[in-house]
């Protein structure tokens, strides 16, 4: 499955696949992205990624054929990149999970069932976007899919764990948002005083571990980046 | 050469004044916006005249009624939009180099052409650097804009610098009244019907009041039949077509990914035309083939 190459002016080139590059395919996308970064390190300013795409921001774009030839070669390499597993504590108490009740009513599911399904899955970090440190995660149980709010909330607090459409995510900063908040984590997801300002990388797996209110209070008194398992 | 710390005191400012450098290139992978200058050429011109490094930090402002007092001598440069500029209450050239003496007060009055003014200083403003940039942004730097009473550090040589006024190149401000913005087809351009493509390129668009450092929304609606896309990379200059049919042109503080179709990409050189427009002003798009 070869990706399509689209040139957008002399500074941007987008490489896109016809399907979402999640699961095993994410490893392919990550591999292609890092090979491009290595091969064209002098010509590239930076790359950005999405579910089906990698976009290259060029300092100086090479000949179109050079890039397409390189992409063909890269397709045949199959080395799985290394990734980490992270356990993230989440307090699903309704004090934090402000929308848990409404979600449970519309979906006719017990709150415990929602928490169970949300915390038993393993999620894959695809890329960062939307807000600094916001993870685009795949792997939400289809039973938990829930359309976004028609009218977004003015403020969703930093640390809120939420569901929107077929995605789940953590708000790293206070922000307006249209997702349904089901819990809160004491773990910081972005620290501008650290470089890099995040602790996980695309390809890593995120798991949520339910914690009590007391544990949340204890952990949030000393917020720190987690350690990989 | 003497290089002592000193401060510039902000005596008055409207909202939206901020410190800018070339931004946080390389941090988009963590979801961090670029936060470069809105008008890159104006920014680079100041640093060029001042013989600074091209990344040296400047003030970016878009509201009249800005007043700043420099506590010690330096050389400054002004570019971008054309405004009424006063030094110690006397009108001076509104662009180009200007020597500054102890406790001089510089004032930016009515902005007559364009909307964003840059004030550069010799060696650059020395505010805090977070993730390799001084550009202010919510969630990254402690404060996201400059406020009255702030003291912005810079270096002084303790004497008024000399420069040759006659050899100065004049700031070319013609782009401030330009209405044609050159664009490339974006990744989702071909999802539009030829009829809608033609319609979009044939008409003028007005800048709406929804304009900030993240994006500018255009007034006129485009009939939209393209669904949202899987979240994909966006850049300053990306023009998105929202589900309601509005065109959203992303600017320097825009998020790094988006879910609206990306129908056009403004040519890097022309992004300043759009960024300098005020609400109510109009523009047209000229499609340039890849």
Tell me what the structure shows.
- The complex is a heterodimer of chains A (229) and B (290).
- Chain A is of the alpha+beta class and 229 residues long.
- Chain A has 2 domains: 4-74, Gyrase A, domain 2; 85-220, Cyclophilin.
- Chain A contains 5 helices and 13 strands.
- In chain A, the strands form 4 sheets. Chain A has a 4-stranded antiparallel beta sheet, with helices on one face. In chain A, strands 5-13-6-7 form a 4-stranded mixed beta sheet.
- Chain B has 290 residues and is mainly β.
- In chain B, strands 1, 2, 3, 4, 5, 6, 7, 8 and 9 form a 9-stranded antiparallel beta sheet that branches. In chain B, strands 10-17-14-15-12-11-18 form a 7-stranded mixed beta barrel. A two-stranded antiparallel sheet of chain B has the order 13-16.
- Chain B is elongated, with a radius of gyration of 20 Å.
- Chain B is built from 3 helices and 18 strands.
- The N and C termini of chain B lie far apart (49 Å).
- The interface between A and B is large, with 39 and 34 residues.
Tell me the name of the CATH class of the largest domain in chain A: Mainly Beta
Distance between the termini of chain B: 49 Å
Biggest sheet architecture of chain B? 9 strands, antiparallel
The 3D shape of chain B can be described as elongated
Rounded to an integer in angstroms, the radius of gyration calculated over CA atoms of chain A is 19 Å
Q: How many H/I helices of chain A?
A: 5
Largest interface: A-B, 39 and 34 residues
How many helical elements of chain B?
Answer: 3
Poorly predicted segments of chain A: none
Q: Helix amount of chain A, in percent?
A: 10-25%
Helix content of chain B: under 10%
- Which spans of chain B have pLDDT < 50 for at least 5 consecutive residues? none
Structural class of chain A: alpha+beta
**Mean pLDDT score of chain B, rounded?**
95
Estimated structural class of chain B: mainly beta
